[in-house]
Amino acid sequence: MKCLRTCTLLLVCLCTFGLVLQTTFKPQLFTTHGIHRSLTINTYTDLADNENRTGALDHLRPSQKPTKVPAGHPSDWRVNELVASRLEQISNMHRERRVDCAAVIRNNKTAMAEAISVAKNLADTRDKNFNINIHLMNQTQNCSHFLKEYGFITDVLSKEEEEFPIAYSLVAYTDTETALRLLRSIYRVQNVYCIHVDISATSRTMGALTSVVSCLPNAFISSRRVNVQWGHFTVLEAELICLQDLWRHKKWKYFINLTGQEFPLKNNFELVKILKSYKGANDVHGTIKYRRLNRWNFQELPHNLTGIKGWVHVSLSRPFVDFTLHDPRSQDLLDFLKGTWIPDESFFSTLNHNTQLGIPGSFVGLNETEQRVGEKPTFNRYKMWGRNPCAKNTVRDICILSTGDLPRMVASDFLFANKFFLNEDRVVIGCLEERLMNKTRDYYMGRLQFNTSVYENSVIVKNRIRDETGG
Ligand SMILES: *[C@@H]1O[C@H](CO)[C@@H](O)[C@H](O)[C@H]1NC(C)=O
Ligand SMILES: *[C@@H]1O[C@H](CO)[C@@H](O)[C@H](O)[C@H]1NC(C)=O
Ligand SMILES: *[C@@H]1O[C@H](CO)[C@@H](O)[C@H](O)[C@H]1NC(C)=O
Ligand SMILES: *[C@@H]1O[C@H](CO)[C@@H](O)[C@H](O)[C@H]1NC(C)=O
Ligand SMILES: *[C@@H]1O[C@H](CO)[C@@H](O)[C@H](O)[C@H]1NC(C)=O
Ligand SMILES: *[C@@H]1O[C@H](CO)[C@@H](O)[C@H](O)[C@H]1NC(C)=O
Ligand SMILES: *[C@@H]1O[C@H](CO)[C@@H](O)[C@H](O)[C@H]1NC(C)=O
Ligand SMILES: *[C@@H]1O[C@H](CO)[C@@H](O)[C@H](O)[C@H]1NC(C)=O
Ligand SMILES: *[C@@H]1O[C@H](CO)[C@@H](O)[C@H](O)[C@H]1NC(C)=O
Q1: Which residues form a coiled coil (predicted)?
Q2: pLDDT tens track for 37-89
């Protein structure tokens, strides 16, 4: 509460400061070539006028029949023309004009070479004086203006998505623009978003993200902020603060954790289909084969738990989050891990692979799976380590994804990709946005189907602990 007030004050100061500096700022967000296109959209519905959006689909007006009714839309599905035209407009807004993204994604060599050179050129010629934080604090003073101009989707697009809200945590530090574009791409009114802004982030970053969040009724800044330091408990702490904050929201079905340098490969329609096809399974990576007992200082874990190491990116069912937050054994594990190195790689993985805990959706037979198929699959992240293919450069052994990675990335079954540096390549995110938005429009119009068979038939779903309802 105290922070909120301080932050608001801060915001006011910074905005005033921003106004003084105003002449040098060129609005150049969200397009690769730095020109902000103005839109005239009449179909926009103001969030503030319509906060209770649960009944939004009831107002759909009959229109032309979609060519094909995708699974997830009821058979009497009608396209609402207002929503359709808004989606078309956002789609146009997100179009990457300088390159042919569709051709790049098909790996057309000519288009690819051109796109890579455009990306390089853009990185070199960005306006260094443009301060996105100040710009955003200004732009968000009028929320309806902001949401409209920045192409946020503020309509419920299907019954199925409406009934399957997703909770997100987003750990942000420096790159406001990437975090914002990520947030925009996953934003839907039925979901919930907790943003943890590192305590050591600048007050401008905090001010900008606070003001963005103030325009989104279902997004908030975490109730507490910590100084996240790689390898330490603080990484996990930031996530747990968000999880606790999110838990108060009763409706969401799955939790996904993100960092500010990631981007979705699937849109909300697809994410809902995928998570539903998990049938309560958690997607938490784990390995026995590659764990090192020194991670736990060669000590026994509490409750005879087997220590498991895994990747930090997770998709968790609500019952799993319940256990994590409220079961005393989870608390004991957490206390034990506080004194260990990189506890965030141990906590969720250990919980998800100790079947004696009986956590719904957790994984049966990790050891056997590893011996049978080499490793346990996970769909959470397209993240290229070590000798995996990488079009450009790696940082600390992780590929920084760029335009040349688009065809591989897009063809994969992963939900999100990690990691991007916007100041090195703006085309890659531009093309991902274009494609996501095209697909959002096409699912809404009933022109596209999504096949979930790879998820439904996955190892993680087949080997899950089912909940009482058999789900
Ligand atoms: C703030 O935004 C308004 C329009 O929304 C614009 O006229 C003004 O120049 C902006 N000020 C700054 C400091 O960017
Ligand atoms: C919100 O919408 C639901 C479903 O349409 C309705 O039952 C409820 O009364 C509404 N609440 C408010 C405050 O309008
Ligand atoms: C998106 O759709 C437009 C047509 O509406 C098309 O020109 C463009 O190539 C599509 N982009 C991708 C990445 O599919
Ligand atoms: C590749 O894309 C270019 C335009 O970007 C087009 O002229 C050419 O026909 C495409 N080639 C193939 C093989 O699709
Ligand atoms: C806020 O923006 C909306 C949409 O652009 C506009 O209609 C409205 O007049 C603006 N309100 C104020 C107070 O500027
Ligand atoms: C751990 O297992 C041993 C034997 O395998 C048992 O004696 C002990 O009580 C167990 N401890 C806990 C905390 O369950
Ligand atoms: C989420 O991501 C961060 C790293 O980005 C990780 O440290 C954390 O433990 C992850 N897991 C959860 C459930 O938050
Ligand atoms: C995994 O399986 C191997 C071979 O069956 C066995 O020796 C080992 O103890 C198992 N590890 C755990 C942690 O269960
Ligand atoms: C979905 O994909 C699977 C495997 O690729 C295929 O066997 C199945 O026929 C597809 N289902 C539909 C409805 O297209």
Answers
A1: none
A2: 222 222 222 222 233 333 333 333 334 455 566 666 777 777 888 899 999 99
Q: Which ligand is nearest to the Cα of residue 455, counting in written order?
A: 9
Name the residue of 314, 362, 420 whose CB sits within 8 Å of the most ligand 7 atoms, as the mutation to test its pocket: 314
Element (H, E) at 258: strand 254-259
Parallel/antiparallel/unpaired status of strands 254-259 and 314-317: antiparallel
Q: Give residue 373's domain range.
A: 2-39+66-462
- Provide the token pair at 93: 């807004």
**Residue 46: inside a domain:** no
C-alpha of 271 from chain center: 10
The number of the ligand 6 atom at minimal distance from the alpha carbon of 302 is 13
Residue 102 Cα to ligand 5 midpoint, Å, equals 35
| Under-50 pLDDT residues of the chain | 1-64
Task: Give the total number of structural domains in the chain.
Answer: 1
Among 16, 22, 132, 143, say which to mutate for ligand 1: greatest number of ligand atoms within 8 Å of CB.
22
What is the reported pTM?
0.83
- What is the CB neighbour count within 10 angstroms for residue 239? 24
* Any domain includes 467: no
Query: Has residue 9 been placed in a domain?
Result: yes
